[in-house]
Amino acid sequence: MNTTTFGQILEAGRTAGICFAIISWSNPSSSPPKFNMSDLDLIRVNDLLVTVLLHPGSRWPPKGSKPTAQPVHISLAIPHDISGAAKFDDLSQSINYSTLASTLRTCLEGSDNSTEQPAFESLEHILFRCFDLLLLPSSTSSPRLPSAQIRIVQLKPPLHCKTLAVEAKATRDGASWSLTQFRHIVNNLECQPIVGVNPAERLERQTVRINITIDTPMPDAFRLQKHWLDFRALTRRLHKKVDETSYLTLEALVSFVAIETLWHLQSSSGDIAGYDPKVNVRAAKPCALVFADSSEVEITRRFEHYQMNLPSELELSEPSSSLSEDIHSIAIALGSNVGDRFQNIELALRLLEDPSSVVTDRSVISENAFLHVVNTSFIYESAPMYVTDQASFINCACMIETNIPPQSLLQLTQAIEVAVGRQPTFRNGPRVIDLDIILYDTLRLDTRAPEDQQSLDNLSGHLVIPHPRLSEREFVLRPLVDMIPEYVHPSLHKTLHALLSKLELGADGSSMDKVIAFPRYPLPTDTPSFLGVDPVPPTLTYWKYRESNSTRKSRSKNKTRLMATLNATPDSFSDGSMHNTIPTALAYVRQAASADIIDIGGYSTRPGATSVSVNEETDRVVPIIQALRSVSSAINVDHEGDQVVQEMPISVDTFRWEVAEKAILAGANCINDVYAFTGPQNYFDPQTGSNTEQATEYMRRMKAVARKFAVPAILMHSRGDAGMNKDYSVYDYSDDAAVIEGVRAELGMKVDAITKGKGGIRRWNVIVDPGIGFSKKVEDNLELLRHGASVTDDKLIGKGFQERKRNPLVGFPQLIGTSRKSFLGVILSDTRGKSTDPKDRVWATAGAVACAVQQGALIVRVHDVEMSDVVAVADALWR
Ligand SMILES: *[C@@H]1O[C@H](CO)[C@@H](O)[C@H](O)[C@H]1NC(C)=O
Ligand SMILES: *[C@@H]1O[C@H](CO)[C@@H](O)[C@H](O)[C@H]1NC(C)=O
Ligand SMILES: *[C@@H]1O[C@H](CO)[C@@H](O)[C@H](O)[C@H]1NC(C)=O
Ligand SMILES: *[C@@H]1O[C@H](CO)[C@@H](O)[C@H](O)[C@H]1NC(C)=O
Ligand SMILES: *[C@@H]1O[C@H](CO)[C@@H](O)[C@H](O)[C@H]1NC(C)=O
Ligand SMILES: CC(=O)N[C@H]1CO[C@H](CO)[C@@H](O)[C@@H]1O
């Protein structure tokens, strides 16, 4: 028998264009059953380059049906006792590698010209042919090996991964051979999902490299079935699906890949339980760690690990009653298009928060059931889409925390739909309000009979969670994104934010407008009182607005709203005691008919203003509000414009809950609080974020008033009464001006405390005010005005990777007040040497108001109603 040395092999290989490389054979599972040199010794041929003809389907790009030439690497490991050759350095006891290599090449490439080149259907096909050649050679000159391990690596695999391979071990068995190991390998499948918990990772896709091996414990069963793995379909499926995910953890992503791989095997090979494949997935995020090469997770899974998730068993049944022990987090969508839509929605929420008043059956809603609305979205009006004479819908959503299990919750929401529809003033049948349970923790649930589960629409009283149409409905997704943008849809494996951005929206981004509604006060006498809940006010009026941020300026045709101030204070810095009597107040409002809302205050927040008791403040404000609300029943009944006066929304400018409550009962529709519900003593310390006890009490009481009366609240940024602290340098890290970051962080903290958690006020009722002129230097005021829109941008705020979070002020409408403020006076004196009283700053105010309009403010607050001309021109220019 001819033999050769290793040096000769390398030489022969080089001249023959055969590529040998010494790499280690990774085979962790091979452990010898008994001590025998031929089990311990292996002869290897590594990465023998062979060009084979492969049928399409197993390569990229597919080209017709003609097989094409493909390079593959073939590696062999042959158990062979080398002790004889080693001891005596005896060629005759060695294996002639050259023969092995040329046998394979000749037979696979058909390169001896006598035979036509064979075409292969798959990598498995090549592999099995190699075993035939090595274990059962037809020519006696070839060595007849007892067993071999072979790996075939496809060098030009389908897109997205570096290599594909099959690897197997076979033993000769009389006149045939049998497989003892079989493995498919996908190496370095490269995907670009959103993955990770750090805020920066939520923003951008990152590369994840995935290795998959599929081991087949019963390889001969697999071989006999001949359902070869379609690598191209597998890698294409995984690449597509992984790119769509946005998991928070690599662990979840790896598990997803394992499930998808098993599903693919199931759907492409039929009964895979017959050979029970084992999938090993390793995934690495090369970019995740700064000082390590990558972070990596490895798992091994079989079908039995995913019994609950097999396609046929996807739908879980109602979870056991143990649920009632726990707190669950649920998203509910609300919609209404009949009657007083805002009133319908508020009533539905109040009933939801008091479940045992609606459902009295204690087997459905148990005595210890609780339900809190802990977060709300903005509220939207969707333009009617097809039937334009149909009333448009308003939509919103809320997050609740409850111990009520899903089925009972469904009964509760259905009972509320009926209850709201039955109320005379809420009239028009049971569909004046829709409540849909959209998400329940991360549950997947379908209570319908299996044959009905295809339908996306006809739920007919059944519960399907997540809601089957969630991913295609902007009017559901958008409100959810206001609250839980990073929630990963349990079956689509994408965040809600990703699902929303995938919707194809019109040119101007959305068919929905945000709206803010002002309730009517004093309450009309026919306002229904319902069971134990506070009466829900009807709607006085509502405003639509388009979201605007620093990059996308709103193009809504609706004008900026003008808020005209009416100071009921003798010491008011801007208008003295001019309006401090009822007749002058009435006259003022009559001539201010071009305003959209009147802001009435009885307590000057000007630095150095004298303090005023609660009673005195109430006595200044309440009579004026009463007079405005009763104007048409008073003497001047025929005065032109009194209808306008009576219907004019009024906000009460106060930080005191007692005054707010009395003003609303008298007819105010909105609270405007310069301390954002924390009272004057709450000097905000950005270092400690501390709140005084007094601030906590203010917060509790003001929230209760705003909630009970369902009025909008304007929350202003300030740093407490004195307004002394103008230092924003702790926010210097931001790419925006430090003062902008400061307003986002400090006001954001208060807005979060006001809107979130049990007893919070509805997000749709909040307007934010950056507080120009309060605790800010001149340049900071200018910066806030110049880049006003960026205060509510959707971006991360905070310092340091861990602390960064989404801007808590994202999406809120803004009120911007610049009128007559002293920073304007400073500019006039600095540039013109002109010293001005507040009253002399009208033209200066006009300049600032124009900028506020350009920055997309919902409301500009002014002392001089002539500013409506400025707004009209600025609107024409920019809105
Ligand atoms: C190995 O076998 C081939 C053909 O069977 C022969 O041509 C060659 O000389 C042998 N090599 C050695 C080193 O004996
Ligand atoms: C995948 O396999 C390749 C080649 O064996 C290796 O270099 C890489 O580190 C592996 N990646 C993972 C995530 O295991
Ligand atoms: C919806 O399904 C129910 C039974 O599940 C059936 O009675 C009803 O007719 C269906 N409605 C429509 C509109 O298909
Ligand atoms: C809304 O509430 C949910 C549930 O408590 C919470 O996970 C989420 O962060 C909140 N969203 C916002 C924007 O505050
Ligand atoms: C501004 O709004 C547009 C459209 O809604 C959005 O694509 C963009 O990301 C927003 N920009 C910022 C900074 O929030
Ligand atoms: C273009 C637009 O949105 N116009 C709206 C302005 O506001 C009024 C009153 O809310 C609506 O009726 C208009 O449709």
UniProtKB/TrEMBL annotation:
Pathway field: Cofactor biosynthesis; tetrahydrofolate biosynthesis; 2-amino-4-hydroxy-6-hydroxymethyl-7,8-dihydropteridine diphosphate from 7,8-dihydroneopterin triphosphate: step 4/4; Cofactor biosynthesis; tetrahydrofolate biosynthesis; 7,8-dihydrofolate from 2-amino-4-hydroxy-6-hydroxymethyl-7,8-dihydropteridine diphosphate and 4-aminobenzoate: step 1/2
Source organism (scientific name): Lentinula raphanica
Pterin-binding domain ranges (all copies): 560-874
One cellular component term from this protein's GO annotations in UniProt: mitochondrial envelope
Gene Ontology MF terms in the entry: 2-amino-4-hydroxy-6-hydroxymethyldihydropteridine diphosphokinase activity; ATP binding; dihydroneopterin aldolase activity; dihydropteroate synthase activity; kinase activity; metal ion binding
Alphabetical keyword list: ATP-binding, Folate biosynthesis, Kinase, Magnesium, Metal-binding, Multifunctional enzyme, Nucleotide-binding, Transferase
Domain of life of the source: Eukaryota
Family: In the N-terminal section; belongs to the DHNA family. In the C-terminal section; belongs to the DHPS family.
NCBIfam families cross-referenced by the UniProt entry: folK
Xref: SUPFAM superfamilies: 6-hydroxymethyl-7,8-dihydropterin pyrophosphokinase, HPPK, Dihydropteroate synthetase-like, Tetrahydrobiopterin biosynthesis enzymes-like
Keyword Methyltransferase in annotation: no
Gene Ontology biological process terms in this record: folic acid biosynthetic process; tetrahydrofolate biosynthetic process
Name of this chain's protein: Dihydropteroate synthase
Catalyzed reaction equations: 6-hydroxymethyl-7,8-dihydropterin + ATP = (7,8-dihydropterin-6-yl)methyl diphosphate + AMP + H(+); (7,8-dihydropterin-6-yl)methyl diphosphate + 4-aminobenzoate = 7,8-dihydropteroate + diphosphate
One Pfam family named in its UniProt record: HPPK
Transmembrane segments: none
